[in-house]
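hey all, quick one before standup. I had two proteins in the batch that finished overnight and I want to keep them in one place so we stop losing track of which output belongs to which input. First protein below, input sequence then structure tokens straight from the run.
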Amino acid sequence: MNELDNAITKLIETIKQDKDYIRYLDLQNQLTNNLEINELINTIKELQKEATRKGHIGNDIKQLEIDIETKFKQLNNIPLYIEYTNALEKVNDCFSLINKKIDSYIEKEVNF
């Protein structure tokens, strides 16, 4: 098991040193501290909750849907948010590739 622990530790260290991962963490920190972005995200969440509640009881939610779409457009026009979502996508793609390689290795070793 020691060899496996070493391989996992090495993988984690490699991820932590990856430039895309480091950039993602920096952008995530900037996003967390950005009042405009946080207010937009919270507004969108509240509008979505309201739309869900009103939709459940059969109320018309067309205006709420328009408001949500408008807020999403505002959010998606903020350069920091765009850069963050791009970085998040890169990191998620990397983790997905790692998962696939691990799955493939395990299947090969266990002879599924």
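OK second protein, same deal, sequence then tokens:
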Amino acid sequence: MKRREFLKTMTVAAGASAASDGLLGTLSPGASAGQPEPADRLPRPEETVRGDMRYRALGRTGEQVSAIGLGGHHIGRQKEEAESIKIIRSAIDAGINFMDNSWDYHDGGSEIRMGKALKDGYRKKVFLMTKIDGRTKEEAARQIDQSLKRLQTDTLDLLQHHEVLRLEDPDRIFAEGGAQEAVLAARKAGKVRFIGFTGHKDPLVHLRMLEVAGKHKFRFDTVQMPLNVMDAHFRSFGQKVLPVLVKEGIGVLGMKSMGDGFVLKSKKVTPVECLHYAMTLPTSTVITGIDSLNILKQDLEAVKTFRPLTDKEVAALLERTAEAASDGRFEPFKTGNGFDGTAQHPEWLGAPDKGPG
């Protein structure tokens, strides 16, 4: 996409709201939180139901993924490895086929546990994704090979650039000798099928990543970002980025529907409401933390009972969460650095750029 066309798209998207059938409204100064302005509708991906699980189209990839995905960080939190493996296999047996992970989760522990869980034929049942932090070609290539080894697979269904948080991250990734070269090489070698990126800090960074990719004549297959009832009110990915992804046919991976528990601490919404809200948006999958069989049961029930929220239900959720969400205190991944692994470990990104002097 040409720069002029891309900027035009962003301008339209930023002004678009998403009411009706679960699409959030952009509120003007004169609008109330409970009355989003009318706006164009963003269609959800095509969906099929098999048993108690819903499967949605993943952008233009031709793949179908479960409406909820298994979060990779949470399956590395169990004290015993066997418990992690049991959770993963139970989720797959119940129909969850989207597996999230990252090179850096628990120093590789999450990938190691998932790799063991995907033995005995389970690998063939899932759409496997992991992420890398490296910003240089050399570091990215090293992390890709480590992830493949830990996950005990020859091919990743999806590889994503992780923690695109800074405005300069896109420039480093797409620079000569940058991480994108390693990712494209991995795809050419058959190690990777599809390519995406993730981030949780600011929608402007996501838009810049899409813009820089467009300059390099590259379109991502997926984009992962926070989508929750608090996001609707504060530095909103749903309002600013989601319309662009839908327009471009890029698969939307929702995350932090409960903000790692912080959204629930507001006492304004329940876990099932959080999941239903995120699934009502045009998400291909909503990646959620499942750290016990009880949480798995809860989340499976949320899928089983799901129906798209009505305008009235969305408006009620927005009104209920407006004040709590106004300053981002229940979305600390946007306002603080506690969720920024690469800020705490800059060495993961690769060699630093040459500075002054």
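Flagging for whoever picks this up: Residues 154 and 191 are 6 Å apart (CA to CA). Confidence is low (pLDDT under 50) at residues 1-40.
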